[in-house]
Amino acid sequence: MEIKNIFKLGFPWQTQDPFLFCVYHLDHYPKGNGELGPDDSLEERTLGNDFEIKDGYRMYHGTTVPGFPAHPHRGFETITIVNKGFCDHSDSLGAAGRFGEGDVQWMTAGRGVQHSEMFPLVHTQKENPLELFQIWLNLPAKSKFVDPHFKMLWHEEIPVVKLENASVKVIAGQFNANNAPDPAPDSWANDPENDVAIWNITVELNGTITLPKAKIGTQRTVYFYDGNTINLAGESIEPNHGVNVDAIKEIKIEAIGADAHLLILQGKPIEEPVAKYGPFVMNTDEELQNAMNEFRTTQFGGWPWRYPDHTHEVNRGRFAQYPDGTVIEK
C-alpha cells in the first residue's frame, strides 16, 4: 500500500521524525500604515496573543507589526519558507535580514539563540498577503550544542524543476538530479545518507506528478494545503489533509478541479528520545530543565536590538546581515 494514513491538518501540522512540526501561515494583510503595521483598526484583537483570524489576518504576538518578537530556541533547526510577503529577522548573534517572495531562511539554534520574526507590511498602496511555512527539523544528540548558524537560501538560488504540468521547488535534498542549495553545516540534512528533502510542488489542473522512490528507511509526508482535490495513488484527498506514504514506492498525484499546491517533507528518522517544551527540544527531561535554567541565567547571549519586535527600515529591500558583519543586498 502506498498510503499509510491520512490526517486532517491542524495548527501546527503533525510531522514524522526527523521533523518536529510544521506551521502554515496564510494571512491576507491589508495595506500598510507606513510604519510596517496594518492600516486598519486593531481594536477587539487580543494583542500580544492574536491567533484568531479576524478580517483575514492575525497579529500573532505582535502589537503594532504582526509577527513573533524575541524568543529563544535550543536543540533543533528552523526552516522558514516565505512564498508571499516578507519576514524581518533579528537575532542574538547580531544577524538580521529581510527576506521573502520565495526566499528561505535556515537557522540552526544549536546550543541556544534568540530571534524575532516580524512580518512587515511594506506596501502602503496595496494589500500585503503573507504565505509562510516554518518547519522544525530536529538535531541529533551529537549536534544539540553546536554553535548557532544563520543561512539564507535566496529564491534566485533555489532550483525550480519544470515538468510538463507541474513544478517542484527543491528547498532541501534533490529532485530528478536537481540539487537544493547546501543546508546548514551541522544539519541532519547535511548528510545525504539521511535522505532529507523539502519540496514545494504545484500541479496544474488535470496535471500529474510522480514522486520518485526514496531510500529504504526514509519517511515521507505529503501535505495538500491548497486546491480542490487530488488523486493520490488512487485515493481522493481533500485540501487541508496530510498523507503519510510509503517512501520507497513511486507516488502518482493528479490535480482535480484546480491547481494543487503541496509541501513534501521526507527524511530518515533520527530515532532518539525527544523531550520538548515550547522552544526547547532536547533528549531528556533533565536536559530540558537545564536548557530553561540556562536561558533564564544567560538569555543565550542577550538581545542586542533596541526592541524585542525589531523591524528594519520601511524602504529596505531584501538583505542579510551575518554575525561577522557581512551584509548581502538582494
Automatic annotation (TrEMBL):
Q: Which PANTHER family match?
A: PIRIN, PIRIN-RELATED
Q: Which family does it belong to?
A: Belongs to the pirin family.
Instruction: Supply the CDD domains for this chain.
Output: cupin_pirin_C (cd02247), cupin_pirin_N (cd02909)
Domain of life of the native organism:
Bacteria
Q: Which Pfam families match?
A: Pirin, Pirin_C
Residues of the Pirin C-terminal domain: 199-301
Check the record and name the InterPro entries matching this protein. Answer: Pirin, Pirin_C_dom, Pirin_N_dom, RmlC-like_jellyroll, RmlC_Cupin_sf
Residue span(s) of domain Pirin N-terminal: 59-137
> Under which name does UniProt file this protein?
Pirin
